[in-house]
Design brief:
The protein has 504 residues and is α/β, with parallel strands linked by helices. It is built from 18 helices and 24 strands. The model has no long low-confidence stretch (mean pLDDT 92).
């Protein structure tokens, strides 16, 4: 039996899956690693930890699958977007990677806005936010000049991992689109932006398609992990692009809702449309396709905060099971999930969350349901932006992550989005998308679309309830007013908190 491996290099762990030609997951393994914070708002990782973790995962596959070493045909990658890896002339790591969730770059973002204005949006199709790669580069350039003087290669995390396996340096278009350095329409690095900020364009890696074989596995790179034949290594794609692949998202009729720590609502298309910058616009893993997405910063994180703060003794399943007892609208209780700021549609790092309508009749299950509904309303904001830009409505939404695993939450999504909700028969997330890229790269399929017919299948999990849809339409119209009504007050409270040092 022949195999391919899909690797997802995440923020807290690396996950790998092994699949065969039939799309069956033969083995799955994950290993965690830590990130460190020298200062508040900083988030860094050691790139060598990623590679040691990859070796551990491959070692487990060799042990668990008898013929893995002889029949592995290809490997590909999904990776956390935006995070910055810097190498010197000898291709050695110069400093810890600065991760996507590092927010030290507020001043650099202002510098980019002042220097580029609307030019950045025209070229890259995206507005600057702290998480993107360009602000991180400028931070290093300004604050660590001795490091910057040695830089010769700028990479993203999965590209470094792939370099360690092949000795080749590349970057695929889907990850490059999240750097704020890619000319979206020309599909090339933007010489214009690089020149504005004094970044030598020779530091950028060659751009390749996601399914391209960029090199063969260097067996000596794996130490004691025994692979007994030549293995193709494909470029791979950004984690959201791989998540879209794993859900079969190739057209704008389908949407994908993914609820992890943050929440994402995305879809894809082929024709370019005018963007306003409210949505992120990135290259898909599929050639000549893009995906549009919005982000709710604290989706599952809002739920985690609620349980950890007020119900530590309950499991998540217990806490969520109680929301079934509460009617839609949580008896007049409304939550906005802005507890760490918001990204879409309100790019506001200072806004904070709120509960409105608190009454003596409200109990913990009411608050839990309000949190779930508030998260879903925030994703509804993104749905409407997508439908407005694409001038069409979704015929179905594929839900993955926490929102798909709870029956009542899936029903809330169906009622709030007013569309049928489907789940995946096999939900392995971005690692499955990476495996699909590997399957195409080794020649099992002639396209990612054809691969999807074998690797991806759905089942319906919820259908809109007409009565609930009407209720949620009324409540959502109230939810839409909350940001504008609370923004100024929230900002004043943030200033007060910062003046006091944010102490308990």
């Amino acid at each position: 039996m022949e195999y391919v491996v899909g690797i997802d290099l995440g923020t807290s762990s690396l996950k790998g899956i092994v699949t065969n030609r039939s799309g069956e997951v033969v083995a799955c393994a994950s290993e965690s690693y830590s990130f460190f914070q020298k200062k508040t708002g900083w988030s860094e990782q050691n790139p060598d930890d990623w590679f040691l973790t990859l070796q551990k995962v491959l070692r487990r596959f060799v042990v668990e699958i008898a013929d893995f070493s002889e029949n592995l045909k290809g490997i590909s990658f999904s990776g956390q977007m935006h995070s910055l890896v810097l190498l010197d002339e000898q291709k050695q790591v110069l400093r810890p990677a600065i991760l996507w969730n590092d927010v030290r770059t507020s001043l650099e973002c202002e510098q980019i806005k002042e220097s580029c204005g609307d030019q950045l949006l025209e070229i890259t199709k995206n507005q600057v936010v702290e998480g993107f790669t360009l602000p991180k580069i400028l931070w290093v350039k300004k604050n660590e000049p001795e490091i910057w003087s040695k830089v010769r290669h700028i990479l993203l995390p999965k590209d470094y991992l792939r370099y360690r396996l092949t000795g080749k340096i590349n970057m695929d278009f889907s990850d490059a689109a999240g750097t704020l350095l890619l000319d979206f329409e020309q599909r090339s690095w933007s010489e214009e932006i690089a020149e504005i900020f004094g970044i030598p364009s020779i530091y950028f890696p060659p751009l390749v398609e996601s399914t391209k074989c960029v090199g063969m596995l260097l067996l000596e790179s794996l130490d004691d992990v025994r692979i007994n034949q030549k293995v193709k290594v494909m470029a791979g794609a950004a984690d959201n692009a791989c998540a879209a692949l794993s859900a079969g998202i190739f057209s704008s009729e389908k949407g994908l809702v993914s609820i992890g720590t943050s929440g994402v609502f995305l879809t894809c298309g082929k024709s370019q449309k005018q963007t306003t910058g409210k949505l992120h616009w990135f290259d898909h893993a599929v050639s000549d396709s893009y995906y549009l997405m919005g982000v709710t910063l604290a989706a599952g994180y809002s739920l985690q905060w609620m349980k950890q703060t007020f119900a530590q003794e309950k499991s998540f399943s217990e806490a969520l099971s109680e929301i079934e007892q509460i009617s839609p609208g949580a008896n007049g209780l409304l939550f906005t999930p802005y507890i760490i700021g918001e990204r879409t549609p309100h790019s506001d790092g200072h806004i904070r969350g709120s509960f409105l309508g608190i009454d003596t009749k409200h109990t913990f299950p009411h608050f839990m349901r309000a949190v779930v509904e508030g998260i879903t309303f925030s994703l509804k904001d993104i749905q409407l932006l997508l439908e407005e830009m694409l001038q069409q409505t979704f015929t179905q939404v594929i839900s993955v992550g926490g929102g798909a695993k709870n029956k009542e939450w899936a029903q809330i999504q169906a009622d709030v989005f007013d569309v049928d909700i489907f789940g995946l028969a096999v939900e392995e997330g971005p690692s499955m998308g990476a495996a699909m890229i590997a399957a195409v790269g080794v020649g099992w399929f002639d396209s990612l679309e054809n691969c999807t017919e074998i690797f991806v299948s759905y089942h319906k999990v919820a259908t809109p309830n007409t009565d609930n849809v009407r209720v949620y339409q009324k409540i959502y119209s109230i939810y839409q007013q909350v940001y504008g009504q609370t923004k100024e007050l929230s900002h004043q409270l943030r200033v007060f908190d910062e003046e006091k040092g944010g102490k308990e």
